[in-house]
Write a structure and sequence with these properties.
Blueprint lengths: L1 E11 L4 E12 L15 H8 L7 E6 L2 E2 L5 H8 L17 H7 L8 H12 L2
Antiparallel strand pairs: 1-2, 1-3, 3-4
Helix pairs in contact: 3-4
Length: about 130
């Protein structure tokens, strides 16, 4: 489960504040497929990078599987990231790898067996 509660990400410029994400609130239940669409530069990647706190929001709470990620220490965040897999688009995909190998990359540093990784990967390849 992923939940955003009033998440904002702002960037300070010389003369003003720019909002990449402003007051976003939503909940994605376990097993739910959720899409984020928008124009180039609309803040889609900025929003997604809040889920595993690759970047911290300026304000608001990010909750993943019951853990309030925004309240965790850096060490705790790293531990929780082991349970969060992200597949990036285009420029972050490994061109030398197949689709299956790119999906497995999200589980690379886990202690799961190769068989278990393959089992976890399979449902996502049918999307």
């Amino acid at each position: 489960m992923i939940e955003f509660k009033n998440v904002t990400k702002e960037f300070q410029t010389n003369h003003s504040v720019l909002y990449a994400v402003k007051d976003a609130s939503f909940k994605i239940d376990a097993g739910e497929i959720f899409g984020i669409i928008g124009y180039s530069g609309a803040g889609k990647s900025t929003l997604v990078r809040r889920i595993n706190l690759l970047e911290r929001p300026t304000q608001g709470d990010v909750i993943v599987n019951g853990a309030i990620m925004t309240d965790l220490s850096q060490k705790e965040i790293l531990e929780h990231r082991r349970d969060i897999g992200m597949i990036f688009r285009q420029f972050n995909l490994m061109t030398s790898r197949t689709v299956k190998e790119n999906v497995l990359l999200a589980m690379h540093n886990t202690k799961m067996s190769k068989v278990r990784k393959t089992q976890k990967r399979s449902p996502y390849l049918n999307l």
